[in-house]
Amino acid sequence: MLIPLNALNDNYIWLYQSHQRGALIIDPAESEPVLEYLSAHSMTPAAILITHNHGDHTGGIAGIVARYPALEVYAPREVAGDFHVVVPDSPLSIAGYTVEVLPTFGHTQGHVSYVIEGHLFCGDSLFSAGCGRVFTGDYAAMFAGLKRINQLPADTIVCPAHEYTRANLAFAQAKCPSAAVDEAMARVEALRKAGKPSLPTTLKAEREINPFLQAQTLEEFTRLRQAKDNF
């Protein structure tokens, strides 16, 4: 079961649960939506996973742990707190789940993504039709992280942390127009008009519409990302 919970202005907190195990909570921007959902559906949390140190991905940790004091939190070293430190490229075993940790640096210095049973939880590294801002200035690291993601199977379910799809598709229409991008925009417009999320997506779909996954060189990626910054 995969659940996107709305938080703040455009964040998604992801809950993932399978095979009657506890629920994994990814990037809780706030505690209230998580606690309310867990209570309403009689779900037990198994762990919290954090992709990076920005407050709109960590703001709910304290409130959730206050309710569940034994709950374990896993995060990269850049996240302040007494948490389990995740090491990129080192698989984790959490509550019966095998969690692959991908280095996806660039948005922040220590940003990681998690692959769990064919689901990619990529924080602010990859968005539908877009990617995160390169706050570190290290475009090479960001590009390398996206290339790692692009090596995952085509049917990987991609779960970004923000509802940015419509704006990203507008950029794609301007810079890399295609029938696939136009079709995606029509689909997303209909979903958003109906009050539904545009996410998750799939890696197969992103390969067709995402200019940043399509970039072949670091120079091309950097040019696109800088253009998006000013779009």
How are the SSEs ordered, and which strands pair?
Elements lengths: L1 E6 L3 E6 L6 E4 L5 H9 L4 E5 L5 H4 L2 H7 L4 E4 L8 E2 L6 E3 L2 E7 L8 E5 L2 E3 L4 E2 L2 E2 L7 H12 L6 E3 L5 H11 L3 H15 L7 E2 H7 L1 H4 L3 H12 L2
Parallel strand pairs: 3-4, 4-5, 5-6, 10-13
Antiparallel strand pairs: 1-2, 2-3, 7-8, 8-9, 9-10, 11-12, 13-14
Helix pairs in contact: 5-6
Task: Please characterize this protein's 3D structure.
With 231 residues, the chain is α/β, with parallel strands linked by helices. Helix content is 35%, strand content 23%. It has nine helices and 14 strands. The chain has helices spanning 32-40, 55-58, 61-67, 139-150, 165-175, 179-193, 203-209, 211-214, 218-229; strands at residues 2-7, 11-16, 23-26, 45-49, 72-75, 84-85, 92-94, 97-103, 112-116, 119-121, 126-127, 130-131, 157-159, 201-202. Strands 1-2-3-4-5-6 form a six-stranded mixed β-sheet, with helices on one face. The protein has a six-stranded mixed β-sheet with strand order 7-8-9-10-13-14. It has a two-stranded antiparallel sheet with strand order 11-12. The longest helix has 15 residues, at 179-193. The mean pLDDT is 97.
